From TrEMBL:
Transmembrane stretches, start-end: 22-43, 64-84, 90-106, 118-135, 147-167, 179-199, 211-231, 243-263
Pfam families in the cross-refs: HATPase_c, HisKA, PAS
Entry keyword set: Kinase, Membrane, Phosphoprotein, Transferase, Transmembrane, Transmembrane helix, Two-component regulatory system
Subcellular location: Membrane
Designated name of the protein: histidine kinase
Annotated EC: 2.7.13.3
Molecular-function GO terms, alphabetical: phosphorelay sensor kinase activity
GO BP annotations, alphabetical order: regulation of DNA-templated transcription
This protein's record includes keyword Kinase: yes
């Protein structure tokens, strides 16, 4: 069998929903019956039919007396319910039933035919009270709350006096004759009753109070009486006695509903009180016999009014309850606040409604205290939950002292100390870690250790394994930089020898690493200097060779001019081409040196325009073909599109293509082939220059685009060159946001692939796109000057 105590505790929301469903059903039934009667009676009134009411065999005097008694009971029932629940709305409702009872009393006292003249002022007064109840959310006015008796007397006198005023107003011949005005006024009052009841229905649902449904039904019956009075006015064939009997019956039913509602609510309240009493007993036992907590209740004057059994047995020597309360009061009131002041605790208690902290009791015990304010009938009480933490506090204090000592040691050593848990999350670091890696304590605690180690697999593997090496050299990644460290890793075990993490102790090797880096840079600088020396030696050779040829040719011409002036022109025609070529070689070398200097200081700029890259490359290739015929080399050009406009510097693209073609011709043997392939895709322009020459050694391919690098550095090499041409080609490609790559098996043939972005400049004038760049023959001869044998 289920225990009913816990049903109410844990099913409060379910009970509320069930009550709301009952209220909705009740309100629906009440309004449905009322509107059915209203529509039926209105229909009969409108078509002027005879209406048969309950026969008038009930004595009006007896019925009036019964109505008066029930009205008084309804008034008293409302007051009783108000007194037991302190709900102000029911004091207002009691005034409504007082008004109805006084109205009945006056009718009986003056021996009038029941409601000979309907008391409109009373009806309006009751409607005002109903609307006040329906919209009242903050309680009734303090003026009424403090003077309820005076308010009741005023309402009683109002109810006695107003019928006389009402009688004089509506006894006037003008109103007495105008029955339609009389009926209209009563109809408006009925409508107001209905509206008030609708709003009262909403309040019933919001407050989840079933008693409002009974009050609504009672009020609607009062409103229904008005319709019968309209029948009396508009239908003279209905006997007055029968009408009065129906009106009296509705009044009696109205009072009975109000009394029944109060009786039903009081019965339900008693049942709830019984359940709450059982619940209270349960909670009392939970508090009184709670062995883990000591509970105290005291008032505003710090007088202890309750303690549970645990605190009485633990701290009290007396056996009498009264003496025990005094002992606890002395023990608790003079307690000392830890980590806070009594003033701050009191302030927090009244601001937040609770306070939590630690206290030292008078007997020296240390307790954790949770204090909460309880407001009962506008009086503040304070509930205190105490838990003895003397041992824990002392132990924690010692641990903190040891931690401070350890922290002082750790933070004053130069080594980096990091501890991580089994999940690889950082749990502790010393100050050296924070200073070295530029992190704050909050940022680094909880961070995965992998964030500091980067991709160091060796140390990550050691963190996972139980076997540990002596030391590991690795790199720790800081917020803005990294440091090199030499670290050792040890496992941390608990009291049961179960691993719960690792500790990393690392020595900063930055200074040592800096020296090593300087040594490496020194070696690199020395190697670079050697390359530069070789380059300048090569340059000397490159400059001296054409100069010697030019000088020798000039000497030969001078000699010929002196010995045979007449044959000088023929002799000059024979050697002028050699002079021209060697001058071009010198000019090309100087241009390359100038460009290298510009590249080093960042002065090499591009003059971008929109050009047809297909036409540009094809035109250059066509102009180079005659020069390749000297070695019987066949140059083949192919493209996948006939036209494609891109953003480029045509002068520099020309130089790039000529340099690559010059190298291809230079290093391709006679009767060889060179393939120039242009492939256009959506995003890139791919220019491929492939030869079947001698190839580039594998060991040279990684540095072939560096400055001063040549595949053949000997001064006896077969082909001329300074070793800076490909470096310039790479810079030109990068200047266009492109790149260059080399494909070669190192034995035979090389393929250079240049990638240029397939993009255009946004011009405001389209005419810029229509001008094609025409390659100058002199540029061809200049760039190809080193393909000819030196003579």
């Amino acid at each position: 069998m289920d225990n009913p105590i816990f049903f109410h505790i844990f099913n409060d929301d379910k009970n509320k929903l069930e009550t709301q469903r009952i209220i909705k059903l009740s309100i629906f039934i009440v309004f449905s019956i009322f509107f059915i009667l209203l529509i039926d009676l209105s229909y009969k009134v409108l078509i002027r039919k005879n209406i048969e009411f309950i026969p008038g065999n009930y004595m009006p005097s007896f019925s009036l007396s019964l109505s008066l008694i029930l009205g008084t009971m309804a008034y008293i029932s409302s007051l009783i319910y108000y007194s037991s629940t302190k709900k102000d709305d029911f004091f207002i409702i009691s005034l409504i039933y007082m008004n109805l009872s006084v109205e009945l009393l006056i009718t009986k006292g003056h021996n009038l035919i029941i409601f000979d003249k309907f008391i409109f002022i009373h009806a309006i007064f009751r409607i005002i009270l109903l609307f006040y109840v329906a919209f009242n959310k903050k309680g009734i006015s303090p003026l009424i709350t403090k003077h309820k008796i005076i308010t009741s007397i005023v309402v009683f006198l109002f109810s006695v006096i107003t019928p006389m005023i009402n009688y004089r107003i509506f006894s006037n011949n003008l109103f007495a004759k105008d029955i339609y005005f009389y009926a209209t006024l009563m109809t408006m009052i009925i409508i107001l009753y209905i509206i008030a009841c609708i709003f009262l229905s909403k309040k019933s649902l919001d407050d989840c109070e079933l008693i409002y449904s009974f009050i609504i039904a009672s009020i609607l019956l009062i409103a229904l009486r008005g319709l019968y009075w309209i029948c009396e006015v508009l239908l003279p064939n209905i006997t007055l006695l029968k009408t009065n009997n129906v009106v009296l019956l509705l009044t009696i039913l109205s009072f009975l509903l109000a009394i029944s509602g109060v009786f039903n609510e009081i019965t339900a309240k008693n049942k709830r009180s019984s359940l709450l009493q059982n619940e209270l007993q349960v909670f009392y036992h939970l508090v009184e016999f709670n062995t883990s907590s000591s509970i105290i209740l005291y008032d505003n004057k710090k007088k202890v009014i309750y303690t549970n059994k645990t605190i009485r047995e633990r701290y009290c020597k007396s056996t009498k309850l009264k003496d025990q309360l005094k002992e606890v009061e002395k023990l608790f009131v003079d307690s000392i606040f830890i980590d806070d002041s009594e003033k701050n605790a009191t302030k927090a208690l009244f601001n937040k409604g609770n306070w939590e902290g630690k206290l030292i009791l008078k007997n020296g015990k240390i307790v954790s205290a949770y204090i909460q304010i309880l407001n009962v009938e506008n009086k503040n009480y304070f509930a205190v939950n105490l838990k003895d933490i003397t041992e824990e506090y002392t132990l924690t204090k010692n641990i903190k002292r040891n931690e401070q000592l350890l922290s002082c040691i750790n933070n004053n050593v130069q080594d980096l100390i990091i501890s991580v848990d089994n999940n690889g999350l950082i749990t502790y670091v010393n100050d050296s870690v924070l200073k070295t890696l530029n992190y704050t304590y909050e940022e680094i605690i909880g961070m995965p250790i992998i964030n500091l180690l980067g991709k160091n697999d060796e140390i990550l593997n050691q963190l996972k394994l139980e076997d540990e090496e002596d030391s590991i050299k690795c790199k720790l990644v800081g917020k803005h930089s990294f440091v090199y460290v030499e670290s050792i890793i040890r496992t941390l075990n608990d009291n049961n020898e179960i691993p719960y993490g690792k500790v990393i102790v690392a020595k900063n090797l930055t200074s040592k690493k800096r020296l090593e880096n300087l040594a490496i840079k020194f070696k690199e600088a020395k190697a670079y200097e050697q390359i530069r020396n070789e380059f300048f030696a090569n340059i000397s050779h490159e400059l001296r060779t054409p100069l010697n040829i030019i000088y020798s040719t000039i000497q030969l011409l001078n000699s010929k001019h002196e010995t045979d002036p007449m044959d000088f022109n023929n002799f000059y025609d024979k050697y002028k081409q050699g002079l021209k070529i060697n001058c071009y070689r010198m000019l090309r070398l100087i241009n390359n040196l100038i460009d290298v200097s510009k590249i080093e200081v960042g002065f090499l700029k591009a003059d971008f325009t929109n050009r047809d890259i297909v036409f540009l490359v094809e035109n250059i290739v066509s102009l180079v073909i005659p020069h390749s015929e000297n070695k019987d080399i066949n140059i083949i050009f192919d493209t996948n599109v006939e036209e494609n406009i891109i953003k480029c510097d045509p002068v520099k693209i020309e130089r790039l293509i000529l340099n690559l073609l010059s190298n291809a011709i230079k290093f391709t043997q006679n009767h060889g082939e060179i393939f120039v392939d242009l492939n256009i895709s959506k995003d890139w322009v791919k220019i491929s220059i492939k030869d079947n020459g001698i190839g580039i050694p594998k060991e040279m391919q990684a540095s072939i685009f560096d400055r001063f690098v040549q595949a053949d550095k000997s001064l006896k090499r077969r082909n001329e060159g300074s070793g800076i041409g490909l470096s310039i080609v790479k810079s030109i490609a990068e200047l266009h946001d492109g790149k260059i790559e080399l494909i070669s098996d190192g034995i035979k043939g090389s393929e250079f692939i240049v990638w240029l972005p397939n993009v255009k400049l946004n011009y405001t004038e389209e005419s810029n796109n229509l001008v094609d760049y025409i390659t100058d023959d002199k540029n061809i001869e200049l760039e190809l000057s080193d393909i000819y044998e030196v003579h």
